[in-house]
Design brief:
Two copies of one chain form a homodimer.
Chain A lengths: L1 H27 L7 H19 L10 H14 L9 H5 L1 H21 L2 H34 L5 H12 L3 H10 L6 H29 L5 H34 L5 H21 L4 H11 L12 H9 L5 H16 L1 H23 L3 H4 L2 H22 L7 H7 L4 H13 L5 H31 L1
Helix pairs in contact in A: 1-2, 2-3, 2-15, 3-15, 5-12, 5-15, 6-7, 6-9, 6-17, 7-9, 7-19, 8-9, 9-10, 9-18, 10-11, 10-12, 11-12, 13-14, 17-18, 17-20, 18-20, 19-20
Chain lengths: ~450, ~450
């Protein structure tokens, strides 16, 4: 009963977010002159952001807010089914679609910033084996076994894309779950994070290969090797040269200005230029953005002024007793260290929800209430679970189940794959809907399972 | 000699910012597939941001960075004169032009957040009189005296726009100058800030009236009253209802989530929705954004969690001696209070330079090295100085010269007027260039003059 009430509140709140601006818009009419489309796009951004935030009510159920954003998008995108066409223009607004793509670029940059190369070296081989199995098992199962078995008669390209989609591991969701449960520093969490990062890179190489096969209509081993080589060269090159050059560039620019603005501009320009370069070598822009985030370390910004609050507080600490001084210094140092992340965070708050809500808007509900699609979706979901649980077995002497379930959320990366497949006309609306159901289920079921496994482990 | 060297450095640095990405782009070629325009737009954003930051070298000369951003735009926009056409697409990129408009909306929102209604009440009548004289004097001088005298034979609409452009006072630049000189709290600074705020609102009403006259080809007293009434009703209504509703809306949304994300979304959505509504009643979107900023007060966000660092530090302060505790509490309270501004700041860092660089790109240098235009520009500039110095006389028993010179920078608002006039085909390229020279000169000359006046006053 309590749950039904809460669900009612969610639906009501989402509808309010949707209907209030709609009503305002219809009442006021179209009296504005001039750049009409620009002011409409501005309203759409507000509508998307407010719906996304209202949908964060899902956190009450222990669910990550990304799920709420997807659901808000599903509502906004399917109101046409009940005769409300107000939000249909969002789907074709070219500026919204640009902001959405920029949003996912910023998200992968943030994820890259959260990770770093040193952390990845520590979890080392274990994470690498988990990642390999976590990519190979779902790809083979999706492409060659479950795909043809559940959906006979499709093109081999479609099976390839389903397999590729299943390889994804959402670093964002995985990290968020462990963070919410305050378990980011246990070895299992470190392994899952490392493996998810490697998985992302491998998955994106798979995406590049699969996209090339689809767009050029089949591809030889030579071309696959060339794409893989390009991807690895770009990533290795950008990581090696990036790490060498980032401190030098940072030092050079700090000679012009040492303020927050320069720090921000350097970080975001790194992200944008790497996203551009990645696309120039045939990779997705998000690969470049992720690499840019991975390269940038707090130490690269040592030439810049500390944030004002750290500065002000550190100035007062001389007269302080040693114990308190150390505590406060730890706080301000950690704030200073994460200052670049803090500066990028508002850009993420503005742009990332646009990506998820727009993604949700692409879900066609009419195809979802379709028994055959639901059956396919459940079949894909079971495959998604089993193949990642298997990858946990490669983790060695740790809680293998915890690692395996930690790898399950497909999140944004799986959706990106599905969107690209849809844009290439390889993935039909029906399969896209099935994949979205799989993403929603892997995202929805993982947090309670992880919570259960962690509590069980704590009892031992 | 020293100055020549520094200027050489600026030119070199700006050229490097321009040429390096250009070279990279030409070398790599056009091999990228897929959403080509999107990745180009991403590169343009990086080019604009980096040029803007390199141009902040002008701060070495005590000049505000807005001047550097304009100059960087002038360079980027006129490289075609020396045969480099690489950056010409920026001028016609619809997404860059949207981001630029969003940038100026965010800037006016930030300026609104910095001001608040209580502050404006304190400086009260003095600021109001300065504002009135500071709008009426330049408008009459520009429209009826200097305009027709310097540029005979133009349409009365052109004179109207020149007059309107001269009424502007740049809150941003004025505030920045006093802030840089650490004189924000002297009465003269308060009066100038208050008057600049009122000037902005009055100037924008003038803009609405002048735009209506131009677009409907002449306008009666009834229509002027209606536009003025609409503007005042919108502003008064949004301020009264906004102040009443903002805490309620804030409280409602804090029930869903009390985190940073919700705080940010509320603030930015306020800005976007007010910008949209302003355009719906026929005002410029920036008027709405400014009103939204004016309405939002730190107190409206009391329902939300304090930022993490304040929280962490406040937790440690119980064991602390009272003197130190009070000092640290002051620091963290001021940080908490300005947290909304801090959250919006990175959005400004991303979008605001796009507006100024794009504005600079619209300056056609070939029309500037034209003696008649230069003479007109100098005539307009002298008018701009004299009429605002006169407004200082209305300030009563304070340093009248300081107030008058504080009102001189035209900055972004003047440029917005000129851009709108240009888009309406009322302002020709030549007059636009003359206005930009006036804006650059008022922006460039004010900081050294204010510094001189403040030091002279300090000696007394």
């Amino acid at each position: 009963m309590q749950t039904t009430k809460k669900i009612n509140i969610i639906i009501l709140a989402t509808l309010m977010a949707v209907l209030l601006p709609a009503a305002a818009y219809c009442t006021i009419g179209h009296s504005g002159e001039g750049a009409h489309n620009i002011s409409m796009t501005i309203l759409w951004i507000a509508v998307i952001l407010i719906s996304a935030k209202l949908s964060s009510l899902v956190e009450r159920f222990g669910q990550p807010s990304v799920l709420g954003e997807l659901l808000a998008g599903v509502v906004l995108g399917n109101l046409a089914l009940v005769g409300i066409n107000t939000f249909e223009p969002i789907k074709t607004d070219s500026i919204i679609s640009f902001l959405s793509e920029l949003g996912v670029i910023v998200l992968l940059f943030q994820i890259g910033l959260e990770s770093n190369i040193e952390k990845m070296k520590k979890v080392g081989l274990k994470a690498f084996f988990v990642a390999i199995v976590g990519v190979v098992a779902p790809f083979i199962a999706g492409t060659y076994i479950v795909g043809p078995w559940l959906m006979p008669g499709l093109s081999s390209n479609a099976y390839l894309f389903i397999g590729a989609t299943l390889t994804a591991t959402s670093v964002g969701i995985t990290a968020r779950v462990f963070q919410d449960l305050k378990k980011l520093h246990i070895p299992e969490a470190q392994i899952v994070l490392g493996a998810a990062v490697i998985d992302d890179v491998m998955g994106l190489i798979i995406l590049a290969v699969v996209s090339a096969i689809v767009t050029t209509g089949g591809v030889g081993l030579g071309v696959i090797s060339w794409i893989t080589a390009k991807a690895i060269l770009f990533l290795a090159g950008s990581i090696i040269f990036g790490q060498l050059l980032a401190p030098k560039i940072s030092k050079l620019f700090s000679k012009i200005h040492t303020g927050m603005g320069m720090k921000f501009t350097l970080a975001i320009s790194f992200c944008l230029i790497f996203a551009f370069l990645a696309q120039k070598v045939g990779l997705a822009p998000i690969v470049g953005a992720f690499a840019a985030g991975l390269i940038l370390d707090p130490v690269h910004f040592n030439y810049f002024n500390d944030p004002q609050i750290s500065n002000d507080i550190n100035k007062e600490l001389a007269s302080c007793d040693e114990n308190l001084r150390n505590k406060l210094l730890t706080i301000t140092n950690s704030y200073t260290k994460h200052h670049v992340e803090n500066l990028i965070a508002p850009i993420g708050l503005l742009l990332v929800p646009i990506f998820f809500v727009v993604t949700g808007m692409n879900v066609k509900l009419e195809t979802m209430f379709n028994m055959p699609i639901l059956i396919v979706a459940l079949g894909i979901t079971v495959t998604a679970f089993i193949t990642k649980i298997i990858s946990g077995l490669a983790a060695g002497n740790v809680n293998k189940l915890l690692v395996g379930f930690g790898m399950i959320p497909r999140g944004e990366v799986g959706l990106i794959f599905a969107m690209i497949g849809k844009n290439l006309n390889v993935i039909s609306d029906e399969i896209f809907s099935a994949i979205v159901i799989m993403v929603i289920l892997t995202t929805l079921l993982t947090p309670p399972i992880l919570t259960y496994l962690l509590k069980k482990a704590d009892k031992k």
